[in-house]
Design brief:
The protein has about 325 residues and is of the alpha/beta class. The chain contains nine helices and 15 strands. Helix 4 links the parallel strand 9 and strand 10. Helix 2 packs across helix 3 and helix 2 crosses helix 8. The two termini are about 20 Å apart. The structure holds NADP nicotinamide-adenine-dinucleotide phosphate (NAP). NADP nicotinamide-adenine-dinucleotide phosphate binds next to helix 2, helix 3 and helix 9.
Length: about 325
């Protein structure tokens, strides 16, 4: 007997913040597997700021999601049927499985994970794509050295929280920028950052100057906009700026560039964009390292899990309002 699959599809290209009518909710039977395929029952769906960009028309690092297509998403679940020798029924897996209850995969990009090492949602978080982003973005692009000052924005989020913790592990000073007192308290008291700037209630440039008396050696940019400008103004000579994201601009019609970019010239500094997928062949190396740090109590992971596939449009907005506390995911089925 085939199962019924509930899905969320893109119905229209959003203008500004996405709204419920930009999505269509569909239900269809799960089809039979062909040779080489596996059926995954999805338990957790990753909600990522990048989803907003994938909904837009135009050239990017991946093609836009087509109108009528299932929303692209990373997800984690269990194999419930398999015609692929690499996967057995019961295996826990992650991959680009979409915003739906069941996904059929030919195994491409499907990764087996060990839920004895960490609970399944952590594989969408610190031991998954956001953790890899922090690891390679900071260590490969940012190249921090012990004693340097590392500043990261969206510091209480999935990527930013890991960036600051790795900076501390590497012997750097870590300064976070986050929205609200509670998030700032969290990154300092629970994650061990040296200081945090509450950009919603404090003057960013002035407060950063106080926390970074010798300037900023690495600014890991997750947000763009005015915060990027404030950080550029404080760069040290030879500073590195990994350009990870620009969430403050994802719902804007116009993409403004930084005003203070000449700071790069004056300081012989480097700003470099990167996409985590370019490091896919090294994920295993990073996962082993980070799992070790987690087991040693040096790296904490926090997930913010919202139940219900039908909440997708509103839950996604939490990323843009800052209502998420840690890696945002939707739970669609029990483990
Ligand atoms: P997240 O930090 O868990 O959630 C997004 C956070 O962004 C919100 O909680 C909010 O925190 C902050 N934010 C939203 N609007 C803002 C604004 N206008 N100004 C300042 N902060 C704002 O999300 P994430 O998954 O870790 O992603 C963080 C960034 O990394 C995003 O830009 C994303 O696109 C990027 N990313 C890039 C790659 C890559 O390969 N390059 C891969 C993954 C993610 P506050 O409450 O602190 O405002």
């Amino acid at each position: 007997m085939s199962s019924s699959n509930h899905q969320v599809r893109l119905a229209a290209r959003p203008v500004g913040m996405p709204k419920r009518s930009d999505f269509k909710f569909t239900e269809e039977p799960v089809r039979d597997l062909k040779p080489g395929e596996v059926l995954v029952k999805i338990q957790y769906i990753s909600l990522d700021p990048a989803m907003r960009g994938w909904m837009n028309e135009g050239r990017s690092y991946v093609p836009p999601i087509g109108i009528g297509e299932v929303m692209r998403a990373g997800a984690a679940g269990r194999v419930t049927a398999s015609k692929n020798d690499r996967f057995a029924v019961g295996d826990a897996v992650t991959g680009g499985l979409g915003v739906q209850e069941y996904a059929i995969s030919d195994g491409t990009g499907l990764i087996k994970v060990d839920t004895k090492v960490a609970p399944l949602p952590v594989y969408l978080s610190t031991l998954g794509m956001p953790g890899m982003t922090a690891y390679f973005g900071l260590l490969e692009v940012g190249q921090p050295k012990a004693g340097e000052t590392v500043v990261v924005s969206a510091a209480a989020g999935a990527v930013g929280s890991v960036v600051g913790q790795i900076a501390k592990i590497k012997g750097c000073r870590a300064i976070g920028i986050a929205g609200g007192k509670e998030k700032c308290r969290y990154v300092v008291e629970e994650l061990g950052f040296d200081a945090a700037v509450d950009y919603k209630h404090e003057p960013v440039a002035e407060t950063l100057r106080k926390h970074c008396p010798k300037g900023i050696d690495v600014y890991f940019d997750n947000v763009g906009g005015e915060i990027l400008d404030a950080c550029l103004a404080l760069l040290t000579r030879g500073a590195r700026v990994p350009l990870c994201g620009a969430i403050s601009r994802y719902n804007s019609k116009e993409m403004e560039g930084p005003k203070n970019y000449l700071s790069l010239l004056i300081n012989r500094a480097r700003m470099q964009g990167f996409i985590v997928f370019d490091y896919a062949d090294r994920y295993q190396e990073a996962a082993v390292q980070m799992a070790g740090w987690m087991m040693a109590g040096k790296l904490k992971s926090r997930e913010d899990i919202v139940p219900g596939l039908e909440t997708f449009p509103e839950t996604l907005l939490k990323l843009f309002t800052g209502e998420n506390n840690g890696k945002l995911a939707i739970k669609v089925a029990d483990e």
